[in-house]
UniProtKB/TrEMBL annotation:
Domain Major facilitator superfamily (MFS) profile: 51-451
Protein family according to the UniProt entry: Belongs to the major facilitator superfamily. Sodium/anion cotransporter family.
Protein name per its UniProtKB record: Voltage-gated purine nucleotide uniporter SLC17A9
Catalytic reactions of this protein: ADP(in) = ADP(out); ATP(in) = ATP(out); GTP(in) = GTP(out)
Top-level taxonomy: Eukaryota, Metazoa, Chordata, Craniata, Vertebrata
Membrane topology: Multi-pass membrane protein
Length: 541
């Protein structure tokens, strides 16, 4: 049965039709099966598959451009006489820029479309990557130009994942979001592997400049192909009018943004993502050092490559598994919690095993299992935000990613302090496990999959039960010869109208109330309903 949700005083675009489960034995106006005034804009399955591959390549190139500087830092430091502190300043400036555009990128994506933001940002950070060697050679202070370039790179790449979340919530059905997000998320691991192998080879053969040229130009080429073949050459124009003239969903997100952040389920996804990002950044930053300190004679390519090779199929498997479970009828919230349990709960077991004294092969196996299971969050908390608030998923994901980035930087620094203070890696792995369990318990306790971007505090109006008080009372008094008290308690307030009075009442209501797709939209202040057992209508004055 359809219900009408009213968010304002006017009818207009503030009325949105939603599906809910109500008893099917009600008699009245047939329920609507479509949202109004929204239209079904979901991708078909073939189109979704094409976009999945394209977005996978885009995320891969995103990480190729992002990791180009860390790969070339040692060579650039020797050429420009940078100290360790100056090299760290160049590398760290990326994350400060990365934090500032998360929410803004999601906000814009929710209003103009995530594909436009992805296209513009990819063209911008791809061009910035290609021009990096030119800035380094033609500026009198290379350290300043590179720091500024990395900061701008962070600003431009910060909109990528919020735009993906917004695009997925707008174009992909719920039962296929897990596969898309997990597949696209695996592009980060693929990009790290590609730039680590091919970038190191180009660095040795053609110099550090070639790494930036190739990764930057390929990124621009990817943006051009997406614009030419997927967007059909439509200009990605973003105007002030388009930012302020969103549909009902943008109005809803603006009106209920503060209320949304007070929802326990929303707070749960923010806290859980914060914990997940913190532990992931810590492992990513300190695992190479752990292997160097613990196994100094080990080959670097083993522990730098194998965990990422495991992470890619693991991410794909988690997406397929979650979508399969949902399509089989399992509760969406339970599936999200199961994926997050593997990501944070089971992975913590393998992290704790590193606290002992494992041999090198076992240490690589434990780290690979940890990194592989961590990817299950792509089908857990990362998708759950789209279940909760599809109307503002981009902006909300931006909030999550901003919190995760800041907490990740802080936890990386704190882990370094623990290593120096205790001289033991066990303290770091214990910290990672504690943070993981904190986030997991929060998610299991408060996570939901129902929409919370709809204001449930406003009255929900059943079309077949509620009509305008003015018309109901007018009909009742016009047909006063045919009414009798229905109950002693409310004898002066409730009336039963003869069958032909019911017909006249419905006719008057249909003339007075606007109709959309054959459904009567009613005023929410007063009610009117059909008597299923008797022969009339009842008005509550």
């Amino acid at each position: 049965m359809a219900v009408i949700q009213k968010y304002g005083k006017n009818y207009g675009p503030d009325l949105v039709c939603h599906k809910e489960n109500h008893p099917s034995d009600k008699i009245g106006v047939p329920g609507c099966h479509k949202k109004w005034p929204e239209h079904n804009t979901n991708w078909s399955r073939p189109v979704a598959r094409v976009w999945t591959v394209v977005l996978l390549l885009g995320t891969c190139l995103l990480y190729c451009a992002r990791v180009a500087m860390p790969i070339c830092t040692v060579t650039m430091a020797e050429q420009f006489n940078w100290t360790k502190r100056e090299s760290g300043m160049v590398l760290g400036s990326f994350f400060w820029g990365y934090c500032f555009t998360q929410v803004f990128g999601g906000y814009v994506s929710d209003r103009v479309g995530g594909e436009k933001v992805l296209l513009l940002s990819a063209a911008a950070w791809g061009s910035m990557t290609a021009f990096t060697p030119i800035l380094a050679h033609f500026c009198s202070q290379p350290i300043l130009s590179m720091t500024l370039a990395r900061f701008l790179m962070g600003l431009l790449q910060g909109v990528h994942y919020p735009s993906l979340a917004s695009l997925c919530s707008q174009k992909v059905v719920e039962s296929e979001r897990g596969f898309l997000m997990s597949t696209v998320g695996s592009g980060s691991y693929l990009g790290t592997l590609v730039i680590g192998g091919a970038g190191s080879l180009m660095l040795d053969l053609y110099g550090w400049e070639s790494v930036f040229y190739v990764s930057g130009l390929l990124s621009v080429l990817w943006a051009y192909c997406m614009w030419k073949y997927l967007l059909k050459g439509e200009g990605p124009i973003i105007t002030l009018e388009s930012l302020g003239s969103g549909g009902p969903q943008s109005k809803l997100s603006r009106r209920h943004w503060l209320r949304l952040l007070k929802q326990p389920a929303v707070c749960a996804v923010i806290v859980t993502h914060l914990c997940t990002a913190s532990t992931f950044f810590t492992l990513l930053s300190w695992l190479p050092t752990f292997f160097k300190d613990t196994f100094p004679d080990a080959k670097g390519w083993v522990f730098n490559v194998i965990p990422w090779l495991v992470a890619i199929p693991s991410s794909l498997f988690s997406g397929c598994l979650s979508d399969h479970l949902i399509s089989q009828g399992f509760d969406t919230a339970s599936v999200r919690k199961l994926m997050q349990f593997f990501s944070m709960g089971v992975s913590s077991v393998f992290t704790l095993l590193l606290c002992g004294n494992p041999t090198f092969p076992w240490a690589v196996a434990f780290v690979s299992a940890t990194m592989g299971l961590t990817t299950f969050s792509h089908s857990g908390v990362s998708v759950n935000v789209q279940d909760l608030a599809p109307s503002c998923a981009g902006a909300l994901f931006g909030v999550m990613n901003t919190c995760g980035a800041f907490s990740g930087v802080l936890m990386v620094y704190f882990s370094g302090y623990l290593i120096e203070a205790t001289g033991s890696w066990a303290s770091v792995f214990a910290l990672i496990t504690t943070v993981n369990l904190l986030g997991l318990c929060t998610f299991l306790a408060f996570a939901e999959a129902r929409r919370v971007d709809i204001d449930s505090s406003k009255p929900i109006l059943h079309v077949d039960q509620l009509l305008n008080r003015f018309w109901c009372r007018s009909v009742l008094f016009t047909l006063s010869a045919h009414y009798r008290p229905r109950s002693r308690v409310r004898a002066s307030r409730t009336y039963v109208v003869a069958p032909y009075g019911r017909m006249l009442c419905a006719m008057l209501a249909s003339w007075h109330c606007p109709r959309v797709n054959g459904q009567t939209l009613v005023n929410p202040t007063h009610s009117f309903s059909w008597d299923l057992n008797g022969s009339g209508c009842h008005g509550d004055g």
